[in-house]
Each structure stands twice: as structure tokens, then as C-alpha cells.
């Protein structure tokens, strides 16, 4: 009970600086916290999520709670059931503090329609996209853990810029029923947390099968927390040379990631560079997949397009006229990239790279699409390769830039390999101090 009250007090006192929440469920959270306390005291402890206060991206339905998907078009939408991921959190005893801010329809950066989330490390900087509110809330200690949604990097992007842990699970590992769609072939719900162990616990609570989502894995959910034994002496690490040496990676980032990779070697892992030529083209391959949101929102595109933000209007219009041949070619190239990544993962247990080529940028520098060049995918993001491969990936803090901004190390494994991913990430985290650093504005 005290934890929920403390987080609600922090939200009341501080969220005006961060704009992390769109809706705070004060009454419901306090009632759920009382029920959790009574259950725990009476011996009905449900596990490590019981009584834990969480924030959830407003892309997920919340029963009886305004669920906007970041759009004014849905400003008054109140679902009559929870998204399965939220239902699973509640079943594990978690306390829903509220719904966190995001870019409109979980699309592109700079597209928030209610308020702009601010980065706890510097309030003039972006908190990333599209799960910006979850990243800011977690970093600013406005929740114990949170949920985001990752299409091409929308968990890992805000997590790395806000200096926290972000986990994209395997596509199909977490139920998407009640998640308002972005790109159906890539969308994944996952945790944004302050530690890898928190990510393991949160993933264990939300993963599973639901026949309402035909794409989910009908397979047992492992005890992810049990895999965090610190032993990575037999782990083979492949460093993606095209990404660590990319021209979009700034020197501070390259240096921090190189030091992080050396730590993995010091912990006993074998480390070797690997070439994956197609990852250079991940942004271009994913660009035609922007055709997917347009048909999902076709009624709004037809009747309410003017109510969307400028960049999303452009995106919907482009997606609506995307030639089938372009989409088809992108899917063929995607399959080749996936094959290249999976073949590398026959040799290596985990592939590593920077998460983003640069630290958090000024909000004022967000692009407004006025030309073809403006519409190109964000080149500094190195998150799309694992998304295109439907593979799990995690970002963990690995240092700071010369401007004292957090930098992230990205790790990816083959589909279904979350236990290995969490094991390696946890071993690195425990061998370094970065996860314990607190933003100056929190």
C-alpha cells in the first residue's frame, strides 16, 4: 500500500515536468493496493509482481479507463475490457498506476498530441519514441516498472535515451489482444524497467498464450528470473561490425559500447566481430512496412485525417498509396535479413551493437516532414534489425556521453531465446555501475 501511495505522490509532485502520464488511475490503484496488501498479509502471495505499481503505455486497452493511443481522435474512448497484457499483470497482483504518454498511434517521433514527454536527464531533450511516457516514467521513478510496445524500436529507443532497460520480446511471446495496432507484423509488447531482473519478472507476468491473439506462442512461459545466474563463461558474443563502425554512431557512443563489449569478455564470454551486410539497409527495408497502419486506421484516414498530427497525416497518406510491389519487395528483403541474422546466431549466442548512434537529442530538433528526405527512417536508430527478424532484443545502460547523457548497449538473440538474453544482460549490468545512476531531475 505504501509503495502505491508513494508513487502516486511522486506523480502528483513531479509529472508536470515530465508529462509521462496521460491518465492516472488514483482511485483504482489505491483500491487494488489495499486488496493486494490484504491478500499478502493473509498468506495469498501471488509472486514478485504482487503489489508492484506499474505504468502502461496508452496503446493498450484499460477496462473503464480512457485509452487514447495518443490521439485526440480517441480522446473519449473507454474500452469495456483490459488488454490481455494488462489483465495478466493484474492477475499477477500488479497495481496499475495509470496510462503513459506516447506518440500518436504509436507512430514516429515528435508526434505526441496531448503533451510532450520530457527526458529526466535533461528536460529540453526528447524521451524517445513511441513509448516515450513509459521511458520517462520509469527513469523518473514514477512507477516501479512499465509496459511499452516495440515495432521497430519503440521500447528500446526511449529506454536507451532515458537510461533504463528496455526489452523487446520475441514476436508472439506476449499477447497483443487489446493493443491498438501500429505495424501488425512487427508490434510487440514488452517491459521498460530500471533493472534486468525487473524486466525478467515483468516479462514472466505478461507472457503467455491467448486464443484471442492467434499469433501468440502456445508454449510454457519459463521462469526468466531463474536464468539470472551471472555465469556467461560459455557465451559466444558476436559484435555486428556494420553497426559498431557505422557512420551514424558518434564517437562517445562507439567508445562506451566498445568498453561494454570488453566487459563481456572480462566476464568470460568469447567475443568476435561478425559481418551482417544487410543490417545497413534495415531502415530502408522497414520503410515500406509503413503501409500497414493505413488500412488499420482507414476509416479515420478517410473521415478524420485532419485531426491527426502533421507527420502522421503524411505517413497515412503515403501508406495508403504504397505500391504493392514495394511492400512485397520489402518483405522479401526482410526475409533475407532475418536469414542473415539467424545464420549468425547459429555461430553466436548473442549479437551486440549500439542501441542508438547518438544520445538523446533536443526536442526542438524533431523533424517536421516537408520533403522526401525528412520522411526517411531515423538513421541513428540501430534497433530495426532484430524487429525485422522477429527476434528478442534488449538495451541496457552502458555509459554516458561527454554531455552526461545515457548510452545503451543492444543485445539480440534468436526467437524464443529470452532466457539467454536476460542472462547475458544481467551479468553485464551487475558488473557495471550504470544502472544505478539516477537522473538529476528525478
Layout: helices, strands, pairs:
Blueprint: H1 2-18, E1 21-24, H2 26-41, E2 53-57, H3 84-91, E3 95-100, E4 118-119, E5 122-126, H4 132-139, E6 145-150, H5 156-162, E7 165-168, E8 188-193, H6 196-206, E9 236-240, H7 241-244, H8 251-266, E10 270-274, H9 282-286, H10 293-296, H11 298-303, H12 310-320, H13 324-347, E11 350-354, H14 384-388, E12 393-400, E13 406-412, H15 418-430
Parallel strand pairs: 2-3, 2-6, 9-10, 9-11
Antiparallel strand pairs: 1-3, 4-5, 6-8, 7-8, 7-12, 11-13, 12-13
Helix pairs in contact: 4-5, 6-15
Q: If you had to describe this structure to a student in words, what would you say it looks like?
A:
With 442 residues, this protein is of the alpha/beta class. It has a single domain, classed as Amidase signature (AS) domain (Amidase signature (AS) enzymes, Alpha-Beta Complex), CATH 3.90.1300. The protein contains 15 helices and 13 strands. The strands form 2 sheets. An 11-stranded mixed sheet has the order 1-3-2-6-8-7-12-13-11-9-10, sandwiched between helices. Strands 4-5 form a two-stranded antiparallel ribbon. A hairpin with a 5-residue loop joins strand 12 and strand 13. Helix 4 packs parallel to helix 5 and helix 6 packs antiparallel against helix 15. The chain is globular, with a radius of gyration of 20 Å.
The rough form would be described as: globular
Q: Supply the number of structural domains.
A: 1
Name the CATH class.
Answer: Alpha Beta
Tell me which oligomeric state these chains represent. Answer: single chain
Q: Mind telling me the C-alpha Rg?
A: 20 Å
Largest sheet: 11 strands, mixed
Strand content: 15-25%
- Unreliable spans: none
Helical content band: 25-40%
Strand count: 13
| Gross CATH architecture | Alpha-Beta Complex
The number of distinct helices, counting runs of at least 4 residues, comes to 15
Order of helices and strands: HEHEHEEEHEHEEHEHHEHHHHHEHEEH
| Superfamily (CATH H level) name | Amidase signature (AS) domain
CATH topology category name: Amidase signature (AS) enzymes
Gap from first CA to last CA: 22 Å
Would you tell me the overall average pLDDT? 94
Give, in spatial order, the strands making up the sheet with the most strands. Answer: 1-3-2-6-8-7-12-13-11-9-10
Class inferred from helices and paired strands = alpha/beta
Amino acid at each position: 500500500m505504501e509503495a502505491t501511495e508513494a508513487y502516486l505522490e511522486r506523480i502528483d509532485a513531479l509529472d508536470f515536468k515530465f508529462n509521462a502520464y496521460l491518465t492516472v488511475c488514483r482511485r483504482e490503484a489505491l483500491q487494488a493496493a489495499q486488496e493486494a496488501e490484504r491478500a499478502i498479509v493473509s498468506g495469498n502471495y501471488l509472486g514478485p509482481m504482487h503489489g508492484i505499481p506499474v505504468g502502461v503505455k496508452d496503446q493498450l486497452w484499460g477496462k473503464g479507463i480512457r485509452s487514447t493511443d495518443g490521439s485526440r481522435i480517441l480522446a473519449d474512448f473507454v474500452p469495456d475490457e483490459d488488454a490481455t497484457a494488462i489483465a495478466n499483470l493484474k492477475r499477477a497482483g500488479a497495481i496499475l498506476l495509470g496510462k503513459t504518454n506516447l506518440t500518436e498511434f504509436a507512430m514516429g517521433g515528435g508526434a505526441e498530441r496531448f503533451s510532450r514527454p520530457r527526458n529526466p536527464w535533461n528536460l529540453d531533450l526528447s524521451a524517445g519514441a513511441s513509448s516515450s511516457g513509459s521511458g520517462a516514467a520509469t527513469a523518473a521513478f514514477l512507477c516501479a516498472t512499465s509496459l511499452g510496445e516495440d515495432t521497430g524500436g519503440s521500447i528500446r529507443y526511449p529506454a536507451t535515451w532515458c537510461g533504463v532497460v528496455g526489452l523487446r520480446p520475441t514476436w508472439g511471446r506476449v499477447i497483443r489482444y487489446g493493443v491498438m495496432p501500429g505495424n501488425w507484423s512487427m508490434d510487440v509488447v514488452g517491459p521498460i524497467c530500471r533493472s534486468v531482473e525487473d524486466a525478467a519478472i515483468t516479462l514472466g507476468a505478461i507472457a503467455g498464450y491467448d486464443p484471442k491473439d492467434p499469433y501468440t506462442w502456445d508454449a510454457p512461459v519459463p521462469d526468466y528470473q531463474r536464468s539470472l545466474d551471472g555465469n556467461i563463461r560459455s557465451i559466444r558474443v558476436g559484435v555486428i561490425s556494420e553497426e559498431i563502425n557505422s557512420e551514424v554512431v558518434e564517437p562517445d557512443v562507439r567508445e562506451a559500447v566498445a568498453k561494454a563489449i570488453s566487459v563481456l569478455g572480462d566476464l568470460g564470454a568469447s567475443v568476435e566481430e561478425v559481418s551482417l551486410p544487410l543490417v545497413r539497409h534495415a531502415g530502408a527495408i522497414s520503410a515500406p512496412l509503413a503501409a500497414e497502419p493505413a488500412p488499420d486506421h482507414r476509416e479515420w484516414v478517410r473521415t478524420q485525417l485532419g485531426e491527426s498530427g502533421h507527420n502522421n497525416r503524411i505517413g497515412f497518406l503515403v501508406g495508403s498509396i504504397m505500391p504493392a510491389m514495394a511492400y512485397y519487395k520489402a518483405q522479401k528483403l526482410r526475409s533475407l535479413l532475418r536469414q542473415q541474422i539467424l545464420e549468425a546466431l547459429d555461430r553466436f549466442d548473442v549479437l551486440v551493437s549500439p542501441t542508438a548512434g547518438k544520445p538523446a537529442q533536443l526536442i526542438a530538433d524533431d523533424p517536421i516532414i516537408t520533403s522526401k528526405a525528412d520522411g526517411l527512417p531515423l538513421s541513428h536508430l540501430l534497433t530495426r534489425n532484430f524487429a525485422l527478424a522477429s527476434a528478442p532484443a534488449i538495451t541496457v545502460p552502458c555509459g554516458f556521453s561527454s554531455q552526461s547523457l545515457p548510452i545503451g548497449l543492444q543485445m539480440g538473440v534468436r526467437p524464443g531465446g529470452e532466457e539467454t538474453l536476460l542472462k547475458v544482460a544481467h551479468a553485464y549490468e551487475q558488473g557495471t555501475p550504470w544502472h544505478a545512476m539516477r537522473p538529476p531531475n528525478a
